[in-house]
Specification:
Elements: H1 4-44, H2 47-61, H3 65-75, H4 85-111, H5 114-122, H6 127-157, H7 169-180, H8 184-222
Length: 223
């Protein structure tokens, strides 16, 4: 084991890890926001809008992430959309993640007992207030685990971004391996970085789920 390689290439690996974090965090947040909007439109819109949204979900979920990345990065300029590799990576994450997030949010909406919603409407509570005060607090407890699992999956999908020269962690690892003709050390470092990212994300997900459950119990006891 050549430990001196970690000292030489440590800064490059950390820069790559930072780029991976940037694409992952911004892409995940953007995908979750777009997915929430899609889920809300799907629930409260007329059937033509729902049909369009369902078609979008099926197309994106039915095609590999790498193909979507290639189409955006290499095909975008033909449509006047010129993005840098990092911008392409982030936008691709938003597009790729949004249908999955939308389905998670939709399942959370469907899990709320309809009797609660009917009772709220019967006493004159508006739809926005129902969403904010009744649906969201309960569904967050139900969907935290699947949200965490999908965010973890997205964290590992950042490795694909190297195919369009995004200088993320795998790209820097491959550069290290090519320049030093070693493979154990670079890919061991790669594995450790991703393992750390998954462990931290899973722990944060558990903490969010615990907090959401406590908040829901306090709200129930207060009423």
């Amino acid at each position: 084991m050549k430990y001196d390689l970690f000292l030489r290439y440590g800064p490059a690996l950390l820069r790559g890890f930072g780029v991976s974090l940037l694409c992952w965090i911004v892409g995940s947040l953007g995908g979750a926001l777009l997915g929430f909007v899609i889920a809300c439109l799907y629930r409260w819109s007329a059937w033509p809008v729902r049909w369009i949204l369902q078609a979008y979900i099926e197309v994106i979920r039915g095609t590999p992430f790498m193909i979507q990345l290639f189409v955006l990065y290499y095909g975008g300029p033909y449509a006047g959309l010129v993005l840098s590799p990092i911008q392409s990576g982030i936008v691709s994450f938003v597009v790729y993640g949004s249908p999955y997030f939308a389905e998670i949010f939709r399942s959370g909406f469907e899990a709320i007992p309809k009797g609660q919603l009917e009772a709220a409407r019967a006493i004159g509570i508006g739809e926005f207030a129902i969403l904010r005060r009744i649906m969201l607090p309960q569904m967050m407890v139900l969907i935290t685990a699947p949200l965490t699992n999908f965010v973890i999956i997205l964290s590992k999908e950042t490795a694909i971004l190297s195919v369009v020269t995004v200088p993320e962690l795998l790209y820097e690892t491959q550069t290290m391996a090519a320049e030093t003709f070693t493979f154990v050390e670079p890919f061991l470092a790669l594995s450790l970085f991703y393992w750390l990212l998954v462990v931290v994300t899973a722990e944060l997900g558990r903490r969010v789920e615990t907090y959401a459950m406590r908040h829901l119990r306090r709200s129930a006891s207060a009423t």
